[in-house]
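Quick one, tokens below. Sequence please?
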């Protein structure tokens, strides 16, 4: 089940549903095909010898579902992206492959089990600069009234002032992570997650990021 950074349950993601369906098909196949003591399914029980059995088709059905799931996931991996738009000069979309070609950094954070997790990602500021955001020497005057809105697939949102993520204003790291311990982020967390390691609470560590939008604060 997906949860927001505060631990609130948000429901099952589409990928979790697909995985559950495939598991049920495989479980059905295992019971009907590989357990000779399991009774014939009630839908084909009869006093007469059936003209045909449904059992041989369970294996094919399970195999088809697994292949479809794997193909769908592989295709979706290439379709994963988050967008950057709003008050920028060049709205863009970023994929995991694009992020991997940029300057990446790794940060270690403590997990709930008392161990250490390593997140790999790209500074938010570097991503925004590519999209034409007003950072660095341009972040002055009225531009200081701009903020970054981070949007998640499930509707969760978090806000950052641009000065919080501009390296000319702060030495603290804030990044968009796309790997956890050297692997793509797991379902319910990725494919992109905001990591702000210096913050004591993880309320702004947005999971399943779908967009970064820059706006002017209302007067």
């Amino acid at each position: 089940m997906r949860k927001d950074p505060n631990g609130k349950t948000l429901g099952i993601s589409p990928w979790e549903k697909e995985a559950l369906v495939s598991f049920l098909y495989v479980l059905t196949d295992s019971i009907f095909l590989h357990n000779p003591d399991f009774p014939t399914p009630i839908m084909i029980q009869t006093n007469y010898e059936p003209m045909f059995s449904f059992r041989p088709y369970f294996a094919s059905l399970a195999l088809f579902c697994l292949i479809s799931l794997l193909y769908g996931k592989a295709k979706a991996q290439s379709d994963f992206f988050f967008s950057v738009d709003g008050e920028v000069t060049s709205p863009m979309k970023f994929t995991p492959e694009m992020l991997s070609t940029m300057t990446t950094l790794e940060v270690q954070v403590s997990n709930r089990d008392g161990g250490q997790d390593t997140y790999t990602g790209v500074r938010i500021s570097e991503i925004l600069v590519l999209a034409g955001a007003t950072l660095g020497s341009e972040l002055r005057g009225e531009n200081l009234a701009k903020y970054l809105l981070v949007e998640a697939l499930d509707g969760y949102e978090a806000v950052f002032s641009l000065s919080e993520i501009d390296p000319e204003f702060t030495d603290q790291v804030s990044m968009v992570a796309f790997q956890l311990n050297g692997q793509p982020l797991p379902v319910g967390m990725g494919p992109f997650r905001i990591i702000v390691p210096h913050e004591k609470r993880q309320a702004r560590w947005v999971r399943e990021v779908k967009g970064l939008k820059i706006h002017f604060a209302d007067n």
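DSSP finds five helices and twelve strands in the chain. The first helix runs from residue 14 to 34.
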